[in-house]
Records
---
Amino acid sequence: MPEFSAHVCVVTHHPFWKLPSGCGSLIRNRYQLLLGHFEQVSILYFSLNGDSCPLPGWTVPVGDGLPRDFGGQVDALFSQESIDIAYFNYDNLNEIAAALSCVTICENHDVMHLRAEAYESFGFSWSGGLEKEEEIRKLRTYDIVCSISLDEANYLHASGLNNVCYLPPNVNWNPQVMPRRPITSGLIGSVMEPNIDGWQHFFEHGDLGFELVLAGPISEYLQNRPDLAKRNMNSTQIMGTINQVRVFYQAIHVSLSPVRFGSGLKIKVLEALAHGRSVVGTHHSFIGFPEGISGVVRCDDDFRNWPSLIDEAVNEVNLSDISDYVNENFSNQRCINLLKARL
């Protein structure tokens, strides 16, 4: 029997059912968590490119925008379908949330004004940024705001947002068998500015000395920029975009995170840990993680020190310690208990 006799509707524009990693895996795992504990879970999918959601629920095409009274239409639908909780994956539909009679929850992946400030400090611009006051006002629309980053949850609460709580991503412990030696490190990621900046900075100042595996869009970007990766391309495997992230983790001993700026919790770091891989990264890569993260990763902002840290991460970080950290902080039971405490 479900723990909660309630009907939840996940409201999203993100096609999480077909995206293998990053926010796709975060939202997919959250959907599975809700399915396991609530009586009924539906999807209200706002389609940006004409595709449809294959999961139970409704698809709304938004190519031409939404009518002004659409929040009222959604409220009528939710009342008709006896939906008790609307679970928004992003804070981009707060006007709809404001019109709903049911409980509204917003999952906050990043504090956008902090992201904008971080981008600007490294010479980039972020068009999606909001002023702090405006972002806090929008987040007050929801009954509950769940921040996936412990640091950002504390920041929002200190900024006067009393409806915020910490709800980390839930992951399943899924360790992969280590490949044969020699030691192989790897990176999987998008072509967002922090990833590109991190690798540019790494290849300017560091030298791995280990075989390298690259996956995701960042791998195709670097393949087309041999000037950035000339030190290591002769010993680099390019996987490109992959459908199953476990294929990547089966090929490496340790994951790398050279990201120097941004906001939110680094999902790729958690994803690596959940697959039984330690991570070597910058200090920024581990912001927002619960206490104990330093015991299962290795951290240094000086890329010249990374070869020794990679060796240390492979030979000194125990798989049992990674398992304990992941299960203690990011298990399904841990996350449902935190959510239950707020409902």
---
Amino acid sequence: MNKWHRIILMTLLALALVAPTLGLSSGPPWDTSDTPPNQVITSGCTCHGGGVASKAVIVSISGVPQSYTVGETYNFTISLTTSDDAVEGGFLLWSYGVGTFNFDADEIRANANESSAISQSKVGNDWLVQWTAPGQDVGEVSFQLVGNAVDGSGLPDEGDAWNIVSFFIAAPGTATVSEGDELSLRTISVGDYESLFVAEVTAEEIEAEHQEELSAKYFEQGNLYYWSTFAILLIGAVFQREFYEKKYGGGPPHLDRSLALPQGIGRGVVALVMLYLTIYMYQHGWGNGWVGVVAMLFLWAAYGVYRTILQGKTPPEVLDLL
């Protein structure tokens, strides 16, 4: 074998190895290389992802009408979604020979074996396709869509993920919707959004979130807890004073009525004002902290009235008479 024969043989072997990759990047074949061959549009991209459909990719087509209007053109968008934001891949869409597709030849091509089926002409995502309904009522129109998200290795391996979905567009005037709904365009998809985008929450994460909520609550309502604690301590001190004063001191010191009357009236007015403000602020949605502070001022003023009355009723002692 001479030098040129070897070069030609090596070139043919290299082309044989890369041909499947080049073919897939410019659109899937109509039939697989299985024995007997299977149609990709019905069996899926069995050379990829271990040969089975996967929930790891969501294949969707939007802009699909509930029912078509004769001769009307609709804009479809075919998309692939995975947990990778930069996902790319390919698709194969078939209308079973009904209606016509229009598309950008740089992005999409008609299948060589079935002219009513289209696929990507290069790896990408979010393909825009126009479908024109037939010129007469032919009944419902069925579609088949296969989407394949690739892992970028350039090979049809288990790192790829594909899925397949069938749908139809109802005949003109036959689609029905629930009362209050509109007969509008829809998005059809296959896949599991929850498995892709809803992460499983562990017990540790739940507890951490709970602790964070508690800390935020205490931080936001710190004034409320502070003043509540302060009020409890203050009320306890007042009761303690009253107890020891009656037990060991015989009661509050005497206050002449000429002084007790104006003092009691003044404290009573303050108590009434604080009571009014407490009710007003509570009814108008003031924060619990503000309402609590004003309520404590009311109680303190009311306690002052009570003390003034007690002092006015206390019998005078010798020092008071002098």
---
Amino acid sequence: IVTGALVSFMDITEKKLLEQRLIYQEKMAEIGAMVAGIVHEINNPLDILVSGLDCLDLETSAEGKITCTATDIHQIREQALRISQIIKRLLTFFKDQPVDMLPLDLNAILENVLFALKHTHRHKDILFIKELDPSLPPVLGSKIDLERLFTNLLNNAIEAIPEKGVVEIESNLENSTDRIQVKISDSGRGIPREVKEKIFEPFFSTKTSYSSLGLGLFFCSQIVKMHHGQIEIESELQKGTTVTVTLPCLKEPNQSNGGKQ
């Protein structure tokens, strides 16, 4: 015989609202991180462009005539075009659309990127050491993406140095693997272990000065992956960082079939 019953009611409206609010906050955080990453990508060539315009302003003669060189004009035009290309490329990047891959001179890309960044960071006392193997074969790649890759890596190396230091850029061919290796080293402050472990994660950020580095390296890792390469980082606090990018070289047609006709 049932003599009584206990009925309980729970208002879940507040719980659902809280869950929806948390989901919304997570989505907004992801969007914010993505926007920060895009701004970071565009800011590099924009800084170079502004730096070039500043140089033109400084080179104005006493008569009021601009005494710029053809190289100055070329660099300004190149960086303006890069901004346009980066925006278009980012749209295809997130849509996972196919990219045109062409034979490219990796040393030429490194030279152009370094030349532009030297102007941007001319206020720093940095010694740039280049050891580029002139006999490198071409790589099959996307020019705008490889420019973004090495602009980010070189910019990070330069920014890791407070005022005075050394940045080394080295390229060579690994004969045993037919892969091209590019090393970018700096004598800067180094990367903490806890940051290094998460540095390639998408939307990784911290409240330290390494936040933009994490966002930039996420894009770098995706570009290297797209080119079937590898990227590795070695770092020691107060001694510096070395980033190594390894990419497959473009073999000649007669190499792929062992030289047979």
---
Amino acid sequence: MNGRTRRRGAALDDAILEAAAAELEERGWAGFGIDGVSRRCGTAKAVVYRRWANRVELAQAVLARMTAESHVENEPSGDLRTDLVAFLEGTAHFLGGPFGEAVRGTLYEASPAHRASMLGDRVIVSDVARIIDDAVARGELEHPPSPAAMNLGHAVAMSEFLHTGLPPIGTAIAVLVDELWVPALTRTGPRMVDPIGGDRTVSAE
């Protein structure tokens, strides 16, 4: 007997992800690796590698699972600023926890192809899209802002976290929302095609 438990399919995937989460929480990003996960899970490294090519992919799967399990959707307050502050406070709470270091590590080590562009044509965080949709529906915003404007607050918060290891909190969140995010949301419109210059973002002015 080799001490390994025979598991298959979803049960094996769950066991690996649970072991990976425990490794991240106990050892941090610096000590996280496929070797430790396979030992903790009681399965062969090859089994883990068949599912995730490296520690970045495995950690991303753990983070996606943890985010989904811990996600609490805030009830709309009826005020755009209040909802954006609540969103950033929730983000800061998650990043300040035991898995924040893994978020930072995976972003540094992930290939460019796996990094979503904050200046692209889609909204990165679904909660932000919901907040903006609510604001448009009640007339607080005259029209849907550009994706870049919608991503701005999250992008700045993540940039701060990547550079300092600490997410913005308290007054820093208020400044980010009041001086950058809300002005960007109220001054930009959806992307439209300019017959001369190509794609452009239409100003609300």
